[in-house]
């Protein structure tokens, strides 16, 4: 049997990337019974029934599963923000970071369009997130600056790009590999934001190995499935301090003798990050009320 990765599912056909070729496969009948779904990113074993056709015999165990969009075995997310145009929103960065942590993805924070602002502004941004422990890259996709360093991180992995519209996701992919199939849209002059121009959900292969998930309208900003007591786990600088709070159930909001609030007051945790924590906490509570 041969192995491959589902790169696209369409009309009960599965397109399997196997080495450098794409094999169009059906599922063996027994898989069609019961509650089963084969999704993009799944690894399969198949047998050939024609030069480029086959039948899927086996589905290998999933390493991970991303729900929105539904993709299996995603290794990491590249959170892409423009430094300016549209101006970076630090609270939006925190929201994306929290969702990525919650999704158990490795995170690469990518600050794009550094050609449009001062080096000091970029350095401050990079430092802010590096201090927390994140991997941060600053790039100018349009000029090709920093693209090699980014590509080195994507090699042999399944990556997903997320970030606000107009941040430059499509431009980055095209810079890595011309014609990766994504369209780039001009940022609307009027509102300073771009339109979502990417449409198909599938895995696009990098020539040197690895895949990127092309995601339509991947918003990445919902906290639906999150519990307020767990929110702190998605802030790498808050979770190690939490055990020092007086109350074991402390959620670092209004409780007395809270070690997290003390760390904020003493400057060990950035006040903006704590504010993002409170904002998201509040949002999770509001969502719960809605049920
Ligand atoms: N100056 C400058 N402009 C850039 C850079 N990268 C992208 N742009 C421009 O920013 C605009 C938006 O880029 P896209 O790649 O379409 O952004 P996107 O994140 O894919 O946007 P959506 O498809 O709407 O999600 C385009 O006009 C790009 O030419 C950069 O490094 N510097
Ligand atoms: Zn606390």
Automatic annotation (TrEMBL):
Molecular function (Gene Ontology), one example: hydrolase activity
Cofactor note text: Binds 1 zinc ion per subunit.
Positions annotated to bind GTP: 112-115, 163-171
EC number: 3.6.1.-
CDD domains per record: S1_YloQ_GTPase, YjeQ_EngC
UniProt xrefs under PROSITE patterns: ENGC_GTPASE, G_CP
One matching Pfam family: RsgA_N
EngC GTPase domain span: 72-219
Top-level taxon in the UniProt lineage: Bacteria
Main location: cytoplasm
Cell compartment(s), UniProt: Cytoplasm
Keywords from the UniProt entry: Cytoplasm, GTP-binding, Hydrolase, Metal-binding, Nucleotide-binding, Ribosome biogenesis, RNA-binding, rRNA-binding, Zinc
SUPFAM superfamilies in UniProt: Nucleic acid-binding proteins, P-loop containing nucleoside triphosphate hydrolases
Binding site for Zn(2+): 245, 250, 252, 258
Enzyme class: hydrolase
Necessary cofactors: Zn(2+)
Residues in CP-type G domain copies: 63-221
Protein family according to the UniProt entry: Belongs to the TRAFAC class YlqF/YawG GTPase family. RsgA subfamily.
SUBUNIT field: Monomer. Associates with 30S ribosomal subunit, binds 16S rRNA.
Role this protein plays: One of several proteins that assist in the late maturation steps of the functional core of the 30S ribosomal subunit. Helps release RbfA from mature subunits. May play a role in the assembly of ribosomal proteins into the subunit. Circularly permuted GTPase that catalyzes slow GTP hydrolysis, GTPase activity is stimulated by the 30S ribosomal subunit.
Protein name: Small ribosomal subunit biogenesis GTPase RsgA
Organism of derivation: Sporomusa silvacetica DSM 10669
């Amino acid at each position: 049997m041969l192995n491959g990765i589902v790169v696209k599912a369409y009309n009960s056909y599965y397109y399997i990337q196997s080495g450098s070729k794409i094999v169009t496969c059906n599922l063996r009948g027994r898989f069609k019974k019961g509650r089963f779904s084969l999704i993009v990113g799944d690894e399969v074993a198949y047998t050939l029934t024609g030069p480029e056709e086959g039948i899927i015999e086996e589905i290998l165990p999933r390493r991970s599963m991303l729900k929105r969009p539904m993709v299996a075995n995603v290794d990491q997310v590249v959170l892409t923000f423009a430094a300016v145009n549209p101006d970076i929103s630090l609270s939006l960065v925190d929201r994306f970071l929290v969702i990525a942590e919650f999704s158990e993805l490795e995170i690469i924070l990518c600050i794009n369009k550094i050609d449009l602002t001062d080096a000091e502004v970029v350095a401050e941004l990079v430092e802010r997130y590096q201090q927390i422990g994140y991997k941060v890259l600053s790039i100018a996709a349009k000029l090709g600056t920093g693209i090699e360093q980014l590509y080195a991180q994507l090699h042999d992995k399944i990556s997903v790009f997320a970030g606000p519209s107009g941040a430059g996701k499509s431009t980055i992919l095209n810079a890595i590999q011309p014609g990766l199939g994504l369209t780039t849209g001009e940022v609307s002059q009027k509102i300073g934001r771009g339109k979502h121009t990417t449409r198909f959900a599938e895995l696009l292969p990098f020539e040197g190995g690895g895949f990127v998930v092309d995601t339509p309208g991947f918003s990445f900003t919902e906290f639906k499935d999150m519990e307020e007591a767990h929110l702190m786990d998605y802030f790498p600088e808050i979770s190690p301090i939490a055990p020092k709070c007086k109350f074991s159930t402390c959620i670092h909001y209004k409780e007395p003798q809270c070690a997290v609030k003390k760390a904020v007051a003493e400057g060990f945790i950035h006040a903006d990050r704590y504010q993002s924590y409170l904002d998201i906490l509040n949002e999770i509570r509001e969502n719960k009320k809605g049920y």
